[in-house]
Design a protein that fits this description.
Organism: Steatornis caripensis
Largest sheet: 2 strands, parallel
InterPro entries: Sec1-like
Number of domains: 3
Protein name: SCFD2 protein
Number of helices: 16
Strand content: under 5%
Distance between the termini: 38 Å
Low-confidence stretches: none
Oligomer: single chain
Helix content: 40-55%
Order of helices and strands: HEHHEHHHHHHHHHHHHH
Structural class: mainly alpha
């Protein structure tokens, strides 16, 4: 959007953790980093410089955390960057934050934001890190079976040539989910009215089924389809996200995280882990509403990130051991482990 540029997340750029023979936070310089991490830092510095060159920017860098300081220092002393800063007309502030200082932010579900949910739940567009595949079968006369889906090229979120779609995408990012979904309906109704399609405007809450029924109106009208293709892709992305099982789970996550914050204030970590234990179910016992192994890893990262200092002791060791056992059993029982679980194991 005009204000926000999403970059692919560099997976190898995690700060080295203190302890376990790694360097302590104070002593991290570029030379102290493992070779793979050094290469990743140089690659990021080069990429950022190329981006700022394209945007005509001279940056002022701020760093929070040891690795961030290394990256900011490398960018400051990078020879091509020095030339660019002399020539650049625009200004930007860049804040680098070590991911390990904000793990709760990376795994939390606090955003009431449609764009975030679309980007989280829909499958990635092949070859892209920050765009998704939108299933376009609904706009065709084909029967909606999995076999036919691959025949039709997927839609996506980037619609630079459609002003209505660009405006709608801005709403997805800047408004609360409920308001953004109403914007999607408004844009659809306006587009249908312009094409003289028989649309019945209804008030009240917007449902995915209602949006689908509006989309169906465009289906047999090739001219209308062509005129509003970008907009229809964004509304289809909305429908598919709202119907996605991961979206209802999002709300469960949020409720559990809130409960956790209250509980941690009142009780110790062992009792919180014991509450979690009965929820860890193996593949055969799970229903679609239960948490998967991956979900538990995310919840555990969140728990240990928000709890602060943990009092160690026999009770904690026992509780952690039980959770580990249950998780290992669940992971071993997965018929088709996801790529993440394969990596973990």
């Amino acid at each position: 959007s005009a204000e926000l540029c999403l970059l692919p997340a560099p997976a190898v750029l995690l700060p080295p953790l203190p302890g376990l023979g790694g360097p302590g936070p104070a002593e991290v310089g570029l030379g102290a980093l493992p070779a793979e991490l050094r290469a990743a830092v140089w690659a990021l510095v080069g990429d950022l410089d190329a981006l700022f060159t394209a945007l005509g920017l001279r940056e002022e860098s701020f760093a929070v955390g040891a690795l961030s300081r290394v990256i900011a220092a490398e960018l400051a002393s990078y020879a091509p960057a020095r030339n660019r800063r002399r020539m650049a007309t625009g200004k930007a502030s860049v804040v680098f934050v070590d991911r390990t200082l904000d793990l709760a932010g990376a795994v939390g579900h606090h955003g009431d934001n449609l764009a975030e949910k679309i980007l989280s739940v829909l499958p990635k567009l092949p070859g892209h890190k920050t765009d998704v595949m939108v299933n376009m079968v609904e706009l065709t006369a084909l029967q909606d079976t999995d076999e036919t889906c691959s025949i039709i090229a997927p839609g996506c979120l980037a619609q630079p040539n459609d002003p209505a779609a660009k405006a709608l995408w801005e709403s997805f990012m800047n408004l609360k989910q409920k308001e953004a979904v109403m914007e999607a309906r408004r844009h659809l109704v306006e587009a249908a009215s312009r094409e003289n399609l028989p649309i019945k405007m209804s008030m009240g809450e917007v449902t995915p089924e209602q949006l689908s029924s509006y989309i169906q109106l465009f289906r047999n009208n090739l001219k209308a389809l062509e005129n509003h293709c970008g907009l229809l892709q964004l509304v289809l992305a909305t429908v598919q996200t709202l119907k996605h099982p991961q979206t209802s789970k999002w709300d469960n996550f949020l409720a559990f995280e809130r409960l956790l914050l209250q509980t941690i204030g009142e009780s110790e970590m062992p009792s919180v882990l014991n509450q979690l234990l009965p929820m860890i179910k193996s593949y055969d016992e799970r229903t679609k509403d239960d948490y998967t192994c991956e979900d538990f890893l995310v919840l555990l990262v969140y728990m240990y990130s928000v709890v602060g200092e943990i009092k160690s002791g026999k009770e904690l060791d026992t509780a952690e051991e039980e959770v580990k056992k249950a998780l290992v059993k669940a992971i071993c029982g997965e018929p088709e482990p996801s790529p993440l679980l394969q990596k973990v194991t």
